[in-house]
Every structure is written in structure tokens, then in C-alpha cells.
Write a structure and sequence with these properties.
The protein has helices at 2-34, 41-51, 56-81, 89-103, 111-117, 125-158, 164-185, 188-192, 194-206, 209-236, 243-258, 264-280, 286-314. It has 322 residues and is mostly helical. Keywords: Membrane, Transmembrane, Transmembrane helix.
Length: 322
């Protein structure tokens, strides 16, 4: 009887957590679209009708680009997991989209790590989180590579004014974090964790070069897709801009936005503020920039998270291996 009661309690808590995460995701989407002080939903719709030339064909193209973006994200995850266990594309899709829904309200999508780990046996969860770190690092590496080149080009040609006080605060923060990490590395507690950490590094080193190459290529293709999608939306809004200038501005925007901690639901606000400044220097109006950023967010995060809510509600804890 006690076993049955514990099982029912565990099942009830699991259902409650799933419902809470889904409701939180929908609430966050609602807040972004209908409580956004930078661009209200009526203003967004007005901008679509006033500035854009979006047709049924362009909607199909935009949706195709978003589906392609997530296809390569799912393939990237499937490829990474294949280093320890085989999962189907459908399983990888459920895990990726479900984790997106669960992490929508967490800073820098950190909840994605725990959400994906819950799809696997407890004995695999540390490795799963490490694989997720490898995948996110690959994406961040591509963003940093293109962004550094793009930002260098942008600074040399458009001379943006930087907030030196903000830069000083960021540098001081990074230095403080570095000193904190060094102090932790010198503690006895960390010394006791060396064996575990060494095992984790050995695990990462065992990932085949073929898998790493596939992951990096998937990250690269994803980056190109959502960058081209951003450029295509600018074109639909009637922005006459040189392709090279547009891509360097877009890459600069993604780089700067990626290094600023934010909750994913406010990610559009962060990107919107950076995009307004960067594109403003090259003559693109604020309403157009905010509308494009909002559409990018809806296509690549809001809609997938709605789909992910279905997979989140269907999630079942893996059976314990005896």
C-alpha cells in the first residue's frame, strides 16, 4: 500500500510540474505579445499591414526556414545522444521541443539542461547534460566566430558609440567571476570532485570526431538559416540594404545578445534593443526592426514552444532499470 501511495504521489507531482511549466510558457508568450511596452500587439499588427509585403508565398518560405532551423537543431541533438544511446528523430524532436517549452522562462535557457536529462535514466543524466553543453557550445562558437568578424566590420564602417560605463561594469563582472572560479578551484571541496570532473572530461574526449563535426555543421547551418530569415524579413518590410551590411549587422546583433544573460521570453526585448541601435545607424526605422525581431521570435521560439507543450504534457519519466 505504501509503495502504491508513493507511486501515486510521484505521478501527481510529475503531472503538476508538467502543467505548471506549460502554463508558465503560455503566460510568458502572452506577456511578450500583449504586455510588451516596446511594441504592443496592435502596433505590431499595424506595422505588418503598413510596412510589410508579406504574402502567402512568403509565409510558406518563413515557415519553411523555421522548420529547417528546428530540423537541424533536432538532428544535432539526435547526433549528440547517439554517442551514448540511440534515439529516433521523433524522440529527439519530442525532447528538443519539450525542453524548449520547459526552459522558456529560465535565464539563457538553462532549464533546457534539466528538461532533456529527465527523458533519460538517472545513470545517464550527467552525460546528457554534458552532451547538451557540447551542443550549445558548438552553437555559441559559431555565433561568436561570425559575430566577431561581423562586429569588427560594423565598428570599422559605422563607428557606433559604446557605453564605456557599461563596458567597465561588464569587464569588472567577468573579472570578479574569474576570481570566484579560481577561488573555488582552490577549495578542498573541488579537490574532492577532481575524480568526477576527470571522468567527465574523459567522456567528452571519447565523443568521436565524426559526431563533433556533424554537430558543428548543424550549428553552422542553423546560424545561416536564421540569419537569412532575418534578412528576408527585412526585405519583406521594404528595407533596401546591402547584403553584406545586413549580414554583418545581424551577426553583430546575435553576438551581443548572446553574451547578455536573459530569460528567453525577454530575449526578444534584449535583441530588440540591440537591433534598434545597430540597424538605426544604417537607417532602418525602429518600428520595422522591432517588428522583424518579434516575428523572428514568434517563428523560432513561440510557435515551437506551443508545439513543445504537447510533448511536455505527454512526457513520462523513464522506467527505472533494476
Amino acid at each position: 500500500m505504501l509503495t502504491a501511495l508513493l507511486y501515486k504521489t510521484k505521478h501527481f507531482l510529475h503531472v503538476l510540474i508538467k502543467l505548471s511549466l506549460v502554463l508558465a510558457a503560455f503566460y510568458m508568450i502572452y506577456v511578450k505579445l500583449f504586455r510588451n511596452s516596446d511594441l504592443s500587439f496592435p502596433e505590431f499588427l499595424q506595422n505588418l499591414m503598413k510596412f510589410s509585403s508579406i504574402s502567402s508565398i512568403s509565409v510558406i518560405i518563413l515557415l519553411f526556414l523555421s522548420i529547417s532551423n528546428w530540423f537541424f537543431e533536432i538532428k544535432k541533438w539526435q547526433t549528440l545522444v547517439s554517442s551514448i544511446t540511440e534515439i529516433s528523430f521523433i524522440e529527439a524532436k519530442a525532447q528538443s521541443l519539450g525542453a524548449l517549452t520547459a526552459s522558456l522562462w529560465t535565464p539563457n535557457r538553462i532549464g533546457d539542461y534539466g528538461a532533456k536529462a529527465l527523458y533519460f535514466q538517472a545513470s545517464l543524466r550527467k552525460k546528457i547534460m554534458l552532451l547538451n553543453l557540447v551542443g550549445n557550445s558548438a552553437q555559441m562558437g559559431v555565433t561568436t566566430g561570425f559575430g566577431t568578424v561581423g562586429l569588427g566590420y560594423y565598428v570599422l564602417h559605422f563607428y557606433p558609440e559604446f557605453n564605456h560605463k557599461a563596458i567597465f561594469i561588464w569587464l569588472a563582472t567577468f573579472i570578479a567571476m574569474g576570481l570566484l572560479v579560481i577561488s573555488i578551484l582552490r577549495t578542498k571541496w573541488f579537490g574532492g570532485q577532481k575524480k568526477t570532473i576527470n571522468r567527465l572530461f574523459v567522456f567528452i574526449k571519447k565523443i568521436s570526431h565524426k559526431i563533433i563535426l556533424k554537430v558543428v555543421l548543424s550549428a553552422l547551418v542553423r546560424y545561416l538559416i536564421f540569419s537569412l530569415q532575418f534578412y528576408y524579413l527585412l526585405h519583406l518590410f521594404g528595407v533596401d540594404i546591402n547584403f553584406m551590411v545586413a549580414m554583418t549587422t545581424i551577426s553583430s546583433m546575435y553576438l551581443l545578445a548572446s553574451i547578455i544573460p536573459s530569460i528567453l521570453i525577454f530575449d526578444v526585448v534584449v535583441k530588440g534593443g540591440i537591433a534598434v541601435y545597430l540597424f538605426g545607424l544604417i537607417g532602418v526605422s525602429e518600428p520595422v526592426v522591432l517588428s522583424v525581431v518579434t516575428l523572428i521570435w514568434i517563428l523560432n521560439f513561440a510557435l515551437p514552444s506551443v508545439i513543445g507543450s504537447y510533448y511536455m504534457l505527454r512526457h513520462k519519466l523513464p522506467k527505472t532499470v533494476s
